[in-house]
Design goal:
heterodimer; A: about 260 residues; alpha+beta; 2 domains; three-stranded antiparallel beta sheet; two-stranded antiparallel sheet; 10 helices; elongated; B: about 290 residues; alpha/beta; 13 strands; globular
Chain lengths: ~260, ~290
């Protein structure tokens, strides 16, 4: 049996917790397939543990049993493709939502926030721009901006930012009624510190569009379309004052 | 090959410990009395904050980089993107040692998060030699290869593990990392003599030693017996220290690392394990001096 075929067979058996087709080639004890199962157990247990640790706030909210069960299933259906475990699990919130969706319809959005906050916490800020004065004002509408690495924008259908703040602060009230409301949220993080900022709809659309690579002109257009009261100049200044902008990455005079 | 800072005087005297993320902030703040730290690059590549702290530590301590994600035994090829990220971290940290495993962990774009066993055949030897050369070419420095802990082997292997490693050294001139605990674990599980394994290993090729804890479990493949699982979740077994002393005498006094990856103890406990390794090394040196 060629090594490539052997590894394909073994890899599939590890993920599926199955006996490999090449079982007759294995040696180790009286029943080597029992020994082989050590690898399958390690695969499932180590990855599930990694997800449970990665989604600690979600475990706090939904309980260990639900999250661990979903994690065990997830690792079988969605093996990692890269060896950095910090990058594994982006698809887990959606998977979790499908598992706990009936009982906790907000679980997917909460886990998405948990995922982003995990990434924000390990981000490192770079020196922010204080002004855009160095750029050509005539071409500002065509400029694209780079934002701090630890920045993410999420729209929520519940007041989940309050809920996750209880987890982060370790101070939860005895009773809390989750409100079904739209929340436009900016998540910021740097060197272990986290901030959750509620935004107006206009500011949210503007900042998210800028973060996604739109020109300032296009981002302002989208924001005005979403919020009649949106003021581009004020919004741009607020981003600069918040230390969000790190670089003017591109400027094209013909874009708006 | 790239030059590295001359940390050898320091590493000759002091043992190192595996630096895992939960201890990172405490290590940065307290600068504990250990000779050096080993890190897994996979914990740092996606973590800019941890990398920043690591680079700070690297100014004061020798760092060893030990990858669990470069799969030199994978018949489906190396993960070129991961090798590139790994190599860039190596360039930034400038470690005194770089190492990985004689194992495979990727197949068809899936990362299996385990160090899976290889059959010891000519085909495997050619593959590992070729991929090891590619890794060393990209890194521009030596990449020490570690012996695995084993639960199963392959009936079609044409050589033993130690014969395979020695042949690899003969063909490629590569350097080895001898994990003494893995030798013990594999010997117990597969029924070979760990002392004989150490005796057979090409001593001139060994550039580093590892010690890690293992966990005995009931062996479902041998009812009534135990199988040793390489968990790195316990203290070094009392059974392994004499084998370590034997390895020091037989293989030479190489930098030694205490590995503890799961159910992490306090940093103080970990430093205590490193101190115990230093005691064993001191006694081994005294025996050597007496023999002269």
């Amino acid at each position: 049996m060629l090594l490539a075929d052997l590894q394909e067979d073994i890899g599939a058996a590890v993920v599926d917790s199955a006996i490999p087709g090449c079982a007759s080639l294995l040696v180790g004890g009286d029943d080597p397939t029992r020994r082989f199962a050590i690898h399958s157990r390690h695969y499932a247990a180590s990855l599930a543990r990694s997800l449970v640790e990665r989604f600690a706030a979600t475990v706090w909210l939904a309980g260990s049993e639900l999250v661990t069960h979903a994690a065990m299933e997830f690792v079988r259906e969605h093996p990692p493709t890269r060896p950095c475990m910090a990058e594994y699990g982006e698809g887990f919130p959606a998977y979790l939502a499908s598992c706990g969706g009936t009982r906790l319809p907000y679980l997917g959005q909460f886990a998405t926030m948990d995922w982003h906050l995990g990434r924000m916490a390990i981000a490192v800020d770079t020196a922010p721009l204080q002004t855009l004065a160095d750029g050509d004002p005539a071409r500002l509408a065509g400029a694209r901006l780079a934002l701090q690495p630890g920045t993410e924008y999420v729209a929520l259908d519940w007041s989940l930012d309050e809920l996750i703040t209880f987890y982060l602060s370790g101070q939860a009230p005895d009773r809390y009624v989750l409100r079904n409301e739209t929340v436009w949220l900016e998540l910021r993080g740097c060197r272990g510190e986290l901030w959750l900022n509620r935004l107006t709809r206009g500011d949210y659309v503007f900042r998210q569009a800028v973060a996604d690579g739109s020109t300032l002109g296009r981002a302002a257009q989208l924001a005005v379309g979403a919020d009649d009261g949106f003021e581009p100049g004020r919004a741009m200044l607020a981003m600069l004052h918040a230390g969000l902008v790190t670089e003017v990455v591109q400027a094209r005079g013909d874009e708006s | 090959m790239a030059t590295t800072r001359d940390w050898h005087d320091l590493t000759a005297e002091r043992s190192g410990i595996g630096l895992r993320l939960p201890h990172l902030a405490e290590v940065v703040a307290t600068r504990p009395p250990v000779g050096w730290f080993e890190i897994h690059p996979e914990n740092f590549l996606a973590n800019p904050h941890a990398t920043e702290l690591l680079l700070d530590l690297a100014r004061d301590y020798p760092i060893s980089i030990h990858t669990v994600g470069v799969s030199v035994g994978s018949a489906h090829g190396l993960d070129a993107a991961h090798l590139e990220r790994f190599a860039r971290l190596v360039e930034r940290v400038n470690p005194f040692l770089v190492s990985g495993h004689l194992a495979w962990s990727t197949a068809h774009g899936q990362y299996l998060n385990d160090l899976l066993p290889l059959p010891y055949t000519d085909e495997t030897l050619r593959l590992v030699a070729d991929q090891l050369a590619r890794v060393e070419d990209r890194l521009g420095r030596r990449y020490l290869l570690e012996n695995p802990s084993t639960y199963v082997g392959f009936a079609h292997s044409t050589m033993t593990e130690v014969e395979f490693l020695n042949e690899l050294v003969s063909r490629t001139g590569c350097r080895l990392l001898c994990d003494v605990s893995n030798v013990f674990v594999s010997g117990h599980n597969m029924g070979h003599d760990p002392y004989a394994y150490i005796d057979q290993l090409l001593s001139t090729a060994v550039g580093e030693l590892h010690l890690g804890g293992f966990t005995p479990e009931e062996d479902e493949a041998r009812p009534g017996e135990t199988v040793l699982i390489d968990t790195h979740a316990e203290r070094i077994s009392d059974s392994v220290w004499p084998l370590y002393a034997h390895a020091l005498r037989r293989l030479g006094d190489s930098p030694t690392l205490i590995e503890w990856d799961n159910d992490l103890p306090t940093l103080r406990q970990l430093v205590g394990e490193a101190a115990r390794a230093e005691d064993v090394r001191s006694r081994a040196r005294e025996v050597d001096r007496a023999a002269c």
